[in-house]
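Quick one: Glutamyl-tRNA reductase from Pontibacter silvestris, structure tokens please.
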Amino acid sequence: MNTLQAVSLSHEMASLEWRQALQLSKDEAAEFMTSLKSWGFVDGIMVITTCNRTEVYYESANTPTAVIQDELLRFKNITDKDAYAPLFSHYTQSQDTLYYLLEVGLGLRSQVVGDRQIIGQFKESYQLTNDLKLGGPLLHQALQTLFRTHKRVHNETAFRSGAASVGYAALERVTDFIPRKEFISKRMLIIGAGQMGTDVAKYATSFGFRNITLTNRTDEKAAQLAEKMGLYFIPYAERLSELNQYDVIISCVSAGEQLGTSQLSSYHNGHKRVLLDLSVPLSIQPEATALPNTVLVNMDQITSQTQAVRKAREASTTEVYNIIDEETLLYTHWLEDLPMAKTISELKGFFASVLESELQKQTGLEQKTAAAALAKATLDRLIRRPAGTLRASEGTNRKILIDSLNQLFQIS
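--- reply ---
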């Protein structure tokens, strides 16, 4: 019988350098999943690949997680398997795999706890699996459990409220001054390619920004990040000459020259220009807020919000895990019912084949619709009592009944 299993390499065990080597593009993920299915390693498969993790969720009766791990390394042309082996985590029991999947999908194992992006990444990955017809019942039920659990956490706890990331909170702050529907037409400049600038850049596209430019004191670092994330890049030395072309400027550099009114000058695009200073010490002079059509938000105004959110999320974690426990128990019950459902389905198929065979012998039945209706009604009555008895049984008694039916009717 199949079990749901997972192989994971994430930020919890591996640094960025190791994770980057295993990242898969959408096309690579499709090729990798298709190959495993065609070779008979899996009956259902889904791959999650982000900047923080590469994970393979699959269902199989006979393929150990070590085989999937080796196939992933081989696919990425990594020959030093021994070096990578300690960085992987393995989940081999369906309930354990589901529990881990829920933790990841809800953002409990993200670098920023409660990360909002991860659920969208699961949906995209699951969509790819479905598009390629690579799903299976265990995987399907697990993802439906995740989506239901995510909805419950959102509705029943404070875990999903607000933004725990400073970068995410900063972008939410922009919506106070510019309608989100207009983001697609606005130009954004991110100054700084460190952790904060990277965080902002990561979320900006999900907010709807399409014209995003990155600059940094080290041009090479900014250029590499811009290329990786599909953003524009300008050399640091040229940033001042283009400042007034941007509707949103987010400064994430410290100990550098402050931007003042002389560099920013006036802004006359008919809307608010938003300046976000996420630097300590400040990198934008406070006087900039006096410029026409300009609003300035500093780090303190952002972090006070994220600190409150973090506290609320920490307080809600126990509630979230209680929901996970409940949903995992429901999944366990569903797993326990699978053999029963399989037996009922096969018994119904056996009865249907007998009825069809006998009806075909009755050449005098001219009304095919009536014959089909008769067959269905008979089949429903035949299956009702054994199915009801099976559903009412539990534990050892259920197993005895299933084994007896399989043996009596030779349906398995």
